[in-house]
Write the structure tokens for this entry.
Amino acid sequence: MSIGNSPQDERPFEEDRDDREEAARPSIGRALQQARIAAGLTVDDVSSATRVRIAIVHAIEQDDFAPCGGDVYARGHIRTIARAVHLDPEPLLSQFADAHGGRPAPTPAAPMFEAERIRPERRGPNWTAAMVAAIVAVIGFVGFTLVKGGDEGTQAQVAEGSTPTASAPASATPKKDKPADPKPDPSDSAIAAAPRDKVTVQVSAADGRSWISAKDHNGRLLFDGLLKQGQSQTFQDNEEINLVLGDAGAIQLYVNGKKIEDEFQPGAVERLTYTKGDPEVG
């Protein structure tokens, strides 16, 4: 007769150990709060970088996901806030899935989260080239008109028999105002700094501030931080540049010397990749 415990007898002890490990792991909200404090950020800083409302950030840190408006939006907020506080979002998303019945089937999300993909560059007209051509045409027309008007005045003077005399003072010819020089396009500096054998990406916070992250083709981090309004960063690599924009609606992009015309939504998180061939010629 055996006195040892059967495998069935050992299961309760294993379950107790799993319960103890689960209790030792911090909650999602607590983990995000600790990471934010460790990064030296306030709730207002996180809200500004992610465009997630302050009340929702506070609620998530208290493990209250009801204000998010649903599991899909809650997952998106967790992912965005985790990146802003330099925390890997995947373990938190798995923990959320375990607590809320697994991952849902893919459904259309709000504009803030439908940008979680690498979007192909939209082809559009080259407005810079069109503007330069128009300015050249206007300057040429004005110059031709001035020259033609001067020739016609000289011919009329000869036909009337008038000849200039030494005593007659020279008539002052009114100076024509020169056409104002066109303002330089913001992309001029980007064009000048865009070698053909590399990919060059210029990120400017034109309409507000935004958290951005940039990596090269090897995954090496080039920049990770908050870009305030009016500030810009330029990145170069031999093959590709990978970007994450915390608030794409506040950002203006120039890729390989060309302005990116894309309707980024305010508060949208964009993940973008650009190579030496971008943007495609339309």
Strands lie at 199-205, 210-215, 221-227, 232-237, 240-245, 251-255, 258-259, 270-275. The domain at 25-100 is CATH 1.10.260.40 (434 Repressor (Amino-terminal Domain)).
